[in-house]
Amino acid sequence: MSHHDKGWVLILGSSSGFGAACSKALAAAGFDIFGVHLDRAGAMPRVNALVEEIAATGAQVKFWNKNVARDDVRLEVIAGIAETLTAQKPALGGLNLADENNRDAALTILSEALKEHNGALKAMLHSVAFGSLQPFVSDNLKEQTSRKQMEMTLDVMANSMVYWVQDLARVRLLDRGSKVFSMTSAGSRRAWYGYGPVSAAKAALEAHTRQLARELGPRGILVNCFEAGVTDTPAMRMIPGADVIKAEALRRNPGERLTTPEDIANTFVALMDPRVHWISGTTVRVDGGEDTL
């Protein structure tokens, strides 16, 4: 371990927006960072600069440029975490990780490899923003949300969080004292044009959070959502009518500004204090009071 002595945090969606801000803040606070992101080649100079900035704090950092929604990627990343923690490549014996029939065998091998590292992940953040932004109903079928788009959005932005927690808990990387966070929004209970699939995913994410908190509570693992106020991130800019949403949020926010990724990051760092161990199954609003009006 580096001179950072607080342990590792896994950030899903680590290269921009909330994920990048949290990666930097947690590294500055003494945590080492694992990150998974999905970026095209043109974005890699920016991602590499972020990795260098994190490393400059003295933190260990390892990023994977992979699709977090894929089952084989999840196992590959867990194997990579095991290799980093044990300085030895897990003996997966050439298992095809893309074959669902091999999942149990792979997790059994990884559990054995990680048996001295229970709870090595002090936290996981699911901050994955990739989904359909089309209306549910349109006279032009090509413009309305399809079954494939709906299922993809729910899988990537909500269900994938459950699958990561399942496997990380199975190999005991998440264990007593670990904390799981995800990113929801006020859109989970509002109707913004074109936001329907993402709204459904955010509502599902909150339901998943409550259920995981119930099931993981006996293991001493906390599970919560962050609900950021309206924030000017790359994902926000993709929402139809984003400028109107931002202007309205700015008008009614008592703090007279929009939320920033750093607001979430600072809250994350504060909640990593080991004395904070009795908040679970809830949504933590970080919005300066925006949602009160």
CATH architecture: 3-Layer(aba) Sandwich
Give the tally of β-strands: 7
The domain tally reads: 1
Shape: globular
The secondary structure category is alpha/beta
As a percent range, the share of helical residues equals 40-55%
Q: Within the CATH hierarchy, at the fold level, what is the topology?
A: Rossmann fold
Radius of gyration in whole Å, from Cα? 19 Å
Description:
By secondary structure, the chain is α/β, with parallel strands linked by helices. It has a single domain (8-221), classed as 3-Layer(aba) Sandwich (Rossmann fold), CATH 3.40.50.720. The chain contains 9 helices and 7 strands, in the order βαβαβααβαβαβαααβ. The chain has helices spanning 17-28, 44-55, 71-86, 103-113, 147-170, 196-216, 234-237, 242-252, 261-271, and strands at residues 8-12, 32-37, 61-65, 121-126, 179-184, 222-228, 283-286. A 7-stranded parallel beta sheet has the order 3-2-1-4-5-6-7, sandwiched between helices. It is globular.
Would you spell out the secondary-structure blueprint of this structure?
Layout: E1 8-12, H1 17-28, E2 32-37, H2 44-55, E3 61-65, H3 71-86, H4 103-113, E4 121-126, H5 147-170, E5 179-184, H6 196-216, E6 222-228, H7 234-237, H8 242-252, H9 261-271, E7 283-286
Parallel strand pairs: 1-2, 1-4, 2-3, 4-5, 5-6, 6-7
